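thread: overnight batch results

M.L. [08:02]
morning all. the overnight job finished for the chain we discussed friday. pasting input first so we're all looking at the same thing
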Amino acid sequence: RLSLQNSAPPPAPSTQHHHPAAAMAFSLPALPYEYAALEPYVDATTMNIHHTKHHQTYVTNVNNALAKFPELAGLGIVDLNKAVGTDKIPADIATMVRNSGGGHWNHSFFWKAMCAPSTTNGPSAELKKAIDTAFGSMDEMKTKFNAAAAARFGSGWAWLGVKPDGSLGICSTPNQDNPLMALADDKMTPILGLDVWEHAYYLKYQNRRPEYIAAFWNVVNWDYVSANYAAAHTGATPSL
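M.L. [08:03]
and the structure it wrote out:
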């Protein structure tokens, strides 16, 4: 009788697929490549620490915040980010969700936006045309993106995204904010992002952030960026 009782499944919440255990709404995603895959542009030690320590901390912290309001876990990470800056997020966890929920989405996206240098292709024909239309050329887009990344004071991100009118835009955000958030100054659907927190590059580049930014273009996963561009025009966010 005892074994039957122990084997009985627990009541299944409607959002069970989002949080299989209490306070575990989200989990650290596996990288789609080895830690050394982005060498020599992003070093293996940085990738390991960035993924297993920094990203894991954001996951842990956002789960801890959501444990107090389990109904929010059912939003999923995209809708949770879109709710940042609205009254959907209770005031006592708003900062934690903004910082750590943003950190979780941003990093999950960032890992997929990169690939080994030998496997990176250029943008799709559709995306290249949109880049030319919005910025004049691929080189001009990179110049603007690099400037946004370099000019972000302190910690933050640079983004290439699809604006509400369907055109491409470039912006930067502080800390772990992103353009999906309701409080973002420049709202858009990100299709490419670059982490310019010092922990993303300091072991290799020290204070030479512009050198890190320039190196980033060698590991951009243009297949993913192009898919994100196509998806954004259907109203979808990037697959994580």
